[in-house]
Design goal:
- The protein is an all-alpha fold and 346 residues long.
- The protein is 78% helix and 0% strand.
- It is built from 13 helices and no strands.
- The longest helix is centred in the last third of the chain and has 35 residues.
Length: 346
C-alpha cells in the first residue's frame, strides 16, 4: 500500500454513521411529523410548543445535512435529509395563502398590473386592428368582390355581398321572436365569430416568440375580417345594427384579442431585442407579465361568450346593445388602468 494513501476503517465509518443517526434521528422524525401535518392541513394545526420547536428543528436538521455531506455518510440518509429540509423550507418560508386568497390577489392586483405593464404593446395591437379594419372596409365598400379574398369561407357563407338586406338582418336580429330559422342562423353566426376570435387570441399569444411577426399578422388579419363584415352590412344599410350587435360582446372579445396580441408582442420583442441579457433570460422576464395577462384573457373570452348569449337571446334593441357594450368597455378600462401599487411586477 502506498504510504501516502490513508487507511480507512470501514467499520469505524459505519459505527460513526450509526451513532450520528441515533443521536439526531429523533429530531428528524419530529420535524418530519410537523412538516407532514402542515402539508396536510396548515400551520394552524401546530401547537404552541410545536411552533417554538419548528425553527430549532429545522436548523438542527440543516446542520445534520451539512455534517452528512462533509463526512460522506450514507447516500440514502443524505437524500432523506435534503428532501426533509426542502419540505420544511417551503412550509416555513413559503407563502401560506389559500387558493381563494391567491385567486383574489390575481383579480385584485396581479392581472390588472400585468395588463398595465404591456400598455405600449396594447396600443400597438389596437392601432393594427383599427388599421386592418379600416383598410378592409374601404376595399370591400369600393369593390364588394374583394370580400371573398379577405374573409374565411366558413364565416362568409351566407353573409357576403350577394346576401339581401333581409338575410343579413336575420343574422343579427331575431331575439325572442320565435322564428326558428332566424334563431338558428343567428346562433351559427355568433358561434363562428366567437370560435374565430378565440383562435386568434390563442395563436396571437402563442406565436409571439417568433419575433412578433405571426402575432402582428394575426392582429391585422382579425381587423381585416371585422372591416370586411362591416362593409357588407353598411352596404345594405345595416351598419349601425351590425355595430351594435358586435358591440354588446365585441367590446370584451376584441379587447381580449388585443391583450393577447400585446402579450405575444411583449415576448417577441424581448427575444428580438434582449439588450444585455441573453434571449432566454429576456424572454423569461417578459413572459411573467405576459403570461398573467394572457391567463386573464381566458376570463374575458368567457364573459364575452355569456354577453353574446344574452345579447342573442334577450336583447334585440340596437340602442340597448350599444349601452351594454360601452358599459363593459368602460368597466374593463377602469378595472385594468386604475392606478395600483406595484410590488416588483415586470
Amino acid at each position: 500500500m502506498n504510504a501516502a494513501t490513508p487507511f480507512v476503517d470501514s467499520s469505524a465509518v459505519l459505527v460513526n454513521a450509526t451513532r450520528f443517526r441515533a443521536a439526531h434521528e429523533g429530531e428528524w422524525k419530529r420535524l418530519d411529523r410537523l412538516v407532514t401535518r402542515m402539508e396536510k392541513r396548515s400551520i394552524g394545526a401546530l401547537s404552541d410548543d410545536d411552533l417554538l420547536a419548528l425553527p430549532l428543528l429545522y436548523r438542527s436538521t440543516l446542520s445534520s445535512l451539512s455534517v452528512a455531506r462533509q463526512t460522506s455518510l450514507d447516500r440514502a440518509l443524505i437524500g432523506y435529509l435534503e428532501q426533509l429540509c426542502t419540505r420544511a423550507y417551503f412550509q416555513i418560508y413559503g407563502v401560506q395563502t389559500s387558493a381563494w386568497r391567491q385567486m383574489g390577489g390575481f383579480f385584485a392586483r396581479g392581472w390588472p398590473l400585468a395588463v398595465q405593464s404591456i400598455w405600449k404593446e396594447t396600443l400597438v395591437a389596437l392601432l393594427l386592428t383599427v388599421a386592418g379594419a379600416l383598410a378592409a372596409y374601404l376595399m370591400v365598400h369600393a369593390n364588394p368582390q374583394s370580400f371573398y379574398t379577405l374573409m374565411p369561407g366558413g364565416m362568409a357563407e351566407g353573409r357576403d355581398p350577394s346576401a339581401s338586406a333581409a338575410a343579413l338582418r336575420a343574422t343579427i336580429h331575431g331575439a325572442m321572436k320565435g322564428h326558428q330559422g332566424q334563431e338558428n342562423m343567428l346562433s351559427v353566426f355568433a358561434a363562428a365569430l366567437f370560435t374565430h376570435n378565440a383562435q386568434i387570441a390563442i395563436f396571437a399569444f402563442a406565436l409571439g416568440f417568433a419575433f412578433c411577426v405571426p402575432t402582428v399578422l394575426l392582429i391585422v388579419y382579425n381587423g381585416l375580417t371585422l372591416g370586411a363584415l362591416m362593409a357588407v352590412f353598411v352596404n345594405r344599410g345595416l351598419g349601425a345594427d351590425f355595430a351594435g350587435w358586435i358591440m354588446i360582446h365585441g367590446s370584451t372579445e376584441l379587447f381580449a384579442i388585443i391583450l393577447s396580441g400585446a402579450a405575444g408582442m411583449r415576448i417577441g420583442t424581448a427575444i428580438a431585442f434582449p439588450g444585455r441579457e441573453s434571449r432566454g433570460d429576456s424572454a423569461m422576464r417578459a413572459g411573467r407579465a405576459a403570461a398573467v395577462a394572457m391567463a386573464g384573457t381566458v376570463v374575458m373570452l368567457m364573459v364575452a361568450g355569456m354577453l353574446e348569449g344574452i345579447g342573442r337571446q334577450l336583447v334585440d334593441d340596437t340602442g340597448t346593445r350599444y349601452a351594454i357594450g360601452l358599459t363593459m368597455l368602460g368597466g374593463w378600462l377602469v378595472y385594468f388602468y386604475l392606478p395600483r401599487k406595484r410590488d416588483g411586477l415586470v
